[in-house]
Specification:
Number of helices: 4
Structural class: alpha+beta
Radius of gyration: 16 Å
Largest sheet: 3 strands, antiparallel
Distance between the termini: 37 Å
Strand content: 15-25%
Number of strands: 5
Strand order of the largest sheet: 3-4-5
Amino acid sequence: EIQQVSGVTSTIDQRYDPCLVEIKGNPTSILAAIDLINASIEGRYASTLNRYSQSSLNQAALTDPYKEIDRNWLPARDEKGQVYWYNPVSGKTQWNNPFLSSS
């Protein structure tokens, strides 16, 4: 049901504890799926599901706010444990999350 509502594809590998969940889709749909998964774990799935409608998520998919962002950025940690962002395609690094800023 989460896949139908959010428009993502997902796999759950229960060979691991905790299980490994892989979610694919546009960033807006992924955030919706994560919210629904957390709501299911926390016992508030029904109320969270009511917040999402297929039409609003389909509209979000058509107007993906991240479509202009280079999606090759990956989070990494420095020797002090601080998160920075690395782009293996361009070789660039930066402190600011490229998905939240325009730097």
